[in-house]
Amino acid sequence: MSDAKTRAIEAYVRAYKRHPDHIIRAPGRVNIIGEHTDYNDGFVLPCAIDKDTVVAIGHRDGNAIEILSCDYDRRDIFSIDADIEKSPEAWANYGRGMVKYLLQSGYNLSPSRMSIAGDVPLGSGLSSSAALEMAVGRALIEQSGHKIDPTDLALIGQKAENQFVGCSCGIMDQLISAKASAEHAMLIDCRTLECSAIPIPQNSALLIVNSGITHSNSDGAYNERRAQCEKAARHYGVKALRDIDEKQLEAGKSGLDHLSYRRARHVVTENARTLAAADALQDNDLRELGQLMQQSHISMRDDFEITVPEIDQLADIMNDAIAQYCDGKGGARMTGGGFGGCVIALAPREYMDKIIDSIHHNYSKNDDKQLEMLISIPSTGVNII
Questions:
Q1: CB of 12 within 8 A of CB of 115?
Q2: Burial category of 93 from C-beta neighbours within 10 Å (exposed 0-12, middle 13-18, buried 19 and up)
Q3: Strand partners for 33
Q4: Are 143 and 51 in contact (CB under 8 A)?
Q5: What per-residue confidence (pLDDT) applies to 218?
Q6: What SS3 class is residue 40?
Q7: 372 versus 332: which is more confidently predicted?
Q8: Pairing state of beta strands 22-33 and 43-59?
Q9: Rounded distance, CA 131 to CA 168, Å?
Q10: Nearest-angstrom CA–CA distance, 190 and 175
Q11: pLDDT tens digits, residue range 39-63?
């Protein structure tokens, strides 16, 4: 039994003196490539990881939803018969937002009480927020006796995060948490929501290194980048930056300020890299994939300006180790919204220990926090356990 599952069940029994009716888990995710392309109607290539948010849920008398957070040691209770307003406690708004928009979408939710526990590192770029939204949403649907299409659940989760929490995220995080396939990445067209499962080569592995530098997507920088991309799209006269290629970007840049141009250049080139990376992964061409991942990191660093020095150092160390030990078969890059979080490497499994040793020997930083490292197995999307 996973630690998150154990903690959720034990907290439920301790608080409510009975066993839950249902237990639901939803995974965090790591994005192999395709950063800040999702809200530009572009392409992303994430996979679910084997770190989850787990919800234990059961019946509650009355007309309220009661949510107990094991990770924050807090409880939130609110009525489902009245307009649901934001809580002053940030963690509670993910659950409140899911309830609000499930109700608005026509789902008649049963009064419920739940406990929530997770082992997705918070603020690490592994989408603990989407895992929470998908687990809470699916738990409420299950407890209320409804069925829901996974894409619809993801869209409701995105709406909750955009309009209730206040982060202008795209659809990627919720969609991969809702629809992932084990041992596969998923190429997502964020405009059509078409999803294509891409197998992860059996001889390769994902190494996720959590820098320990936390971020919050709703702090403003994420929303600022989105506004800059929308400004660039208006300049080019298109719905989203997905609708132009690099040739069109260069031909039409006159009159666009240089900052917005660089933001647009990242998105346009990242879309092209993501499609090429899906092909490389399908063909088991780890050398080509690695080059695309390195180019992606440089673009995030220089054009989108969302990395930090510690993240750049980690990516350089991991790419140097892959070049030395793996003959360039694989690559590393920052993953997630930026300004901290994680670096991901995809490389042959047999060399993962050498890459980890290189990090231990070469990475330096200003505090004594230990890096968290995870060799991950791509997992399934939200489900009942």
A1: yes
A2: buried
A3: 45
A4: no
A5: 47
A6: helix
A7: 332
A8: antiparallel
A9: 17
A10: 9
A11: 999 999 999 999 999 999 999 999 9
What pTM did the predictor assign? 0.91
The mean pLDDT of the chain is 94
User: Is-contact 23 56, C-beta < 8 A?
Assistant: yes
* pLDDT tens, residue by residue, 85-106: 999 999 999 999 999 999 999 9
| E-assigned strand segments in 338-384 | 342-348, 372-376, 383-384
First vs last C-alpha separation in the chain: 10
pLDDT of residue 217 exceeding 70, the answer is no
Provide the 10 A C-beta neighbour count for residue 110. 18
Long-range contacts of 234-238 (CB under 8 A, 24+ apart): 235/260, 236/264
Band of pLDDT at residue 325, cut at 50, 70 and 90? very high
Cα 284-288-291 angle, rounded to 5 deg: 140
Encoded tokens for 257 = 């300020």
Q: What is the pLDDT of residues 226-262, one digit of tens each?
A: 999 999 999 999 999 999 999 999 999 999 999 999 9
At 284, list the tokens.
């088991």
Q: Is residue 155 classed as helix, strand or coil in its secondary structure?
A: helix
Q: Residues 41, 76, 173, 303: which is the catalytic one?
A: 173
The Cα–Cα gap between 148 and 364 comes to: 47
Query: Is residue 46 helix, strand or coil?
Result: strand
Kindly report which listed range (14-18, 19-23, 201-205) carries the lowest average pLDDT score: 201-205
How far is it, in rounded angstroms, from Cα 219 to Cα 179? Answer: 28
Can you tell me which residue has the tokens 């409804």? 146
DSSP one-letter code for 109? P
Who contacts 64 (Cβ-Cβ below 8 Å, separation ≥6)? 77, 78, 79, 80, 111
> Does the active-site annotation cover 173?
yes
